[in-house]
Write a structure and sequence with these properties.
- 3% of the residues lie in helices and 43% in strands.
- The strands form 14 sheets. A 6-stranded antiparallel sheet has the order 8-7-10-5-12-13, with no helix packed on it.
- The protein has 780 residues and is mainly β.
């Protein structure tokens, strides 16, 4: 005898399919339709003096694996992990072999039913139930022998004297192959408060989730044969990866499969033991062959031996299917004279053949030509215009091919294709030296075909035409304009794709819409291709102009490292400069506006007052109508934002005033273009920028009212002469960035400055009365 801890889970076979002392016993796998209730097995809720009696019948078909076995424990499944049973509860379990399939429609008498049953458990269940969820074992005091072929009646009785602190829920099953949902008399129960009645008054088709431990005698004979249910015997059109399914048989530990292409053959599966399961799927990695008859036998097996004389089933796999053609559409008209036929791959096919003719089934163009393992075919030469063509695509492999495939047709357009309908005929475009597009090329998609897959471009392309240009710069713009649709009242959408490399072996660099787009990373002298295509469907053709432009080079101050120095004046107009952000690339950050770009950089040295105002203003005729201004401390590459302004200046221009700054410190200023749509569209262009401090204006006014000391010659070579130094205490010489390069105390009228580098300098005269005068000079 072998001890079998077998839980018959009439739900999911969670425990019943486990291995017990070297042998697995399957049970029926039921649906997932379960629910939780407080009175499924034990009426363990929060009411005092509660009682529950229940009776249900398990059919013999679900008990074959414990035939003639001795049941030593019963299991019920607790659904929740909260609450424990009180110490005054009692629980009884009775078992009985029966030929009855249900209890009938009359309420059964409890005493009569249990009178012929065996009381296997009668104890306080507190310890067995515990405080966790899952299956709970109730060890029998008296063992019970289940008679093979009998149905099994289970009776439970639960009594609690005091109310539970919280309800305990148990799982029950209410549908699936384990439950006969049309027969409510398979389960009877009685829940009560107080005294039990004599009969079980209620009925339904629900049953607690239950399991058993059993000691089962080893089989003395091999199992009987099973019946294959799928594929059905003599079935045709079966998948190349079918699932073979059979019925479970008693006293079976596993199943062996033989399969071949001849009766009794084993060239596909030769005595393969698939375990104690009831199905086996042919792996997708090793599919069967099209249009082939197979013979299969499933043989149950146990420790004694294998079943003998089992019936062999046969089935035939499906024929190789015909490819599914996606383009041209069936009976399409207006098709390009250089069309591409496209179809889907067929599983198991190693190649495809194409037949094309000018009559249905005709072969005058292509006669069953082997194309190899591809999924498209592009005609190499133009077909005739206004002509109907008939074609068939078939699939094949080493052993078979698809047959009876549909003859499809399409009719070519009445317009011949343009010369640039494919990459090889690409039209050469003139590269403009600027963005003005002085030279454009007119084109049309009329008669064009789709010559290349759209990926990775946008849209769903219909027809495309090709252009090429030789790069003269590392970046160029592509512009489509004057787009006019014909054949429809709605203008068709257009896209373009820029590619590098030779025709047939190209890499996509840019995919875009009709707006002007910059293509970067170009190599001057290299040829690049532009593929323009419509997104509108058959019958829609579009004319357009195409232009290749050249963006201007970036300004010298496009990056912080090239910042242009600003000279601090007494007012905006004193030292304002006219500058531009045309060609600038966005870098850095701002704190006051996210819609910004195309910024350029400036630097300024904080004057002695520690106060400075930085402002932008417009230039007549410029497209730059709205600026953002940010000021930063630190060094290029390690800047800290200290101020930012959007529209505090004149109109939509910017102004920042700083106080308490450290004199002599260099600040970095970034001027941005507002890129949002509020207030109108602003483009790149010229603008004015200035740094000033009103205290300098007051000093200059004092100086000018007293005298006007001159410096000469200006520009000078080595010596700069001062016209009157009688009242001059010190002379300070600073470069254009504001850096002090020389200090001369009690100067003479001739200043020897030959050691200075060429450039502009500020010569500041500090007068004995405390006033100052600054003179701009240039060292040659």
């Amino acid at each position: 005898m072998k001890k079998l801890n077998l839980l018959f889970l009439f739900l999911t076979c969670m425990l019943a399919c486990q291995l017990y002392q070297g042998q697995a016993y399957p049970v029926a796998t039921c649906s997932s339709n379960v629910d939780n209730m407080t009175y499924s097995v034990m009426r363990s809720n929060t009411i005092a003096n509660e009682k529950q009696r229940m009776a249900f019948i398990i059919p013999a078909s679900q008990l074959s694996d414990i035939a003639n076995g001795t049941i030593t424990s019963t299991y019920f499944k607790r659904a929740t992990a909260s609450g424990s049973l009180n110490a005054d509860t009692t629980f009884k379990i009775y078992l009985k072999n029966t030929s009855a399939t249900d209890f009938g429609s009359t309420a059964p008498d409890w005493a009569t039913e249990i009178g012929s049953a065996t009381l296997v458990y009668d104890s306080n269940p507190q310890t067995a139930v515990g405080s966790t969820s899952g299956f709970k074992q109730f060890q029998h005091a008296t063992n019970f022998v289940y008679t093979a072929g009998s149905n099994l009646a289970v009776y439970t009785e639960y009594v609690q004297t005091t109310a539970q602190a919280s309800s305990i829920f148990w799982q029950y099953e209410y549908s699936g192959p384990c439950i006969n949902s049309s027969n409510s008399n398979t389960t009877k129960y009685l829940g009560t408060t107080g005294t039990f009645g004599a009969t079980l008054t209620s009925s339904n088709y629900r049953r607690p989730v239950i399991g058993f431990d059993a000691t089962v005698p080893p089989p003395t004979t091999p199992p009987s044969c099973t019946t294959i249910s799928a594929p059905a015997n003599a079935a045709t059109g079966v998948s190349l990866t079918p699932t073979i399914t059979w019925a479970a048989t008693p006293i079976t530990s596993s199943y062996v499969i033989n399969m071949g292409t001849t009766p009794g053959g084993t060239n596909i599966l030769n005595g393969v033991d698939v375990g104690n399961v009831t199905s086996y799927a042919i792996p997708a990695a090793t599919p069967l062959t099209y249009s082939t008859q197979y013979y299969v036998t499933v043989i149950p097996k146990n420790v004694v031996g294998m079943a003998t004389g089992c019936t062999e089933n046969t089935f035939t796999t499906l024929s190789m299917p015909c490819p599914s053609v996606s383009s041209p559409s069936a009976s399409a008209t207006g098709v390009s004279t250089i069309p591409t036929i496209v179809w889907g791959a067929v599983t198991g096919a190693t190649g495809y053949k194409l037949t094309v003719g000018t009559t249905s089934g005709g072969t005058d163009l292509l006669n069953n030509v082997d194309l190899g393992n591809v999924t498209s075919y592009a005609f190499s030469a133009p077909l005739n215009i206004s002509t109907t063509y008939y074609y068939t695509v078939t699939a094949y492999n080493a052993s078979t091919n698809s047959t009876g495939c549909t003859v499809r047709s399409f009719t070519t357009t009445s317009v011949p294709p343009p010369a640039n309908d494919n990459c090889a005929g690409a039209v050469t475009l003139t590269v403009n030296p600027d963005l003005a597009c002085g030279v454009t090329t007119s084109a049309n998609t009329l008669g064009a075909s789709l010559s290349m897959a759209a990926t990775p471009c946008n849209g769903n392309p219909d027809d495309d035409v090709w252009f090429k240009f030789v790069a003269t710069n590392t970046a160029h713009t592509v512009t489509l304009s004057n787009i006019v649709s014909t054949g429809s009242t709605t203008a068709s959408d257009m896209y373009f794709q820029v590619l590098s490399g030779a025709c047939g072996s190209q890499t996509s660099l840019l995919c875009s819409d009709p707006n002007t787009n910059i293509v970067g990373v170009l190599t001057p002298g290299e040829t690049y291709y532009v593929r323009v295509y419509t997104y509108s469907g058959a019958g829609y053709n579009t004319s357009f102009n195409i232009c290749i432009g050249t963006p201007p080079p970036p300004p010298v101050n496009d990056a912080c490292s090239g910042a242009i120095p600003l000279m601090v004046g007494g007012a905006f107009a004193t030292n304002a400069i006219t500058t531009t952000n045309v060609g600038a690339v966005t870098d850095g950050t701002t704190s006051c506006q996210t819609n910004r770009g195309d910024n350029v950089w400036y630097s300024v040295v904080v004057p002695a007052s520690g106060s400075i105002t930085i402002e932008t203003q417009g230039v007549t005729g410029s497209g730059l109508l709205d600026t953002i201004l940010s000021v930063h401390s630190g060094t290029c590459g390690s800047l800290t934002s200290i101020a930012c302004d959007d529209d505090n200046g004149v109109g939509n221009y910017s102004l920042v005033t700083l106080t308490g700054q450290t004199p002599g410190t260099t600040l970095y200023v970034s001027v941005w273009r507002y890129t949002g749509s509020a207030g109108g569209t602003s483009t790149t262009g010229q603008f004015m920028v200035s740094a000033y401090d009103a205290s300098l204006l007051a000093t200059n006014e004092v100086n000018n009212s007293k005298n006007a000391i001159k410096a000469y010659p200006n520009p000078f070579s080595d010596v700069l002469n001062i016209s009157d130094v009688a009242d001059v205490k010190n002379i300070l010489v600073t470069d254009i960035s504001g850096r002090l390069v020389k200090t001369i105390s009690n100067p003479a009228s001739a200043l020897h400055l030959g050691d200075l580098k060429q450039g502009m300098y500020l010569v500041t005269l500090e007068m004995k009365d405390g006033s100052k005068q600054t003179i701009k000079t240039i060292k040659k």
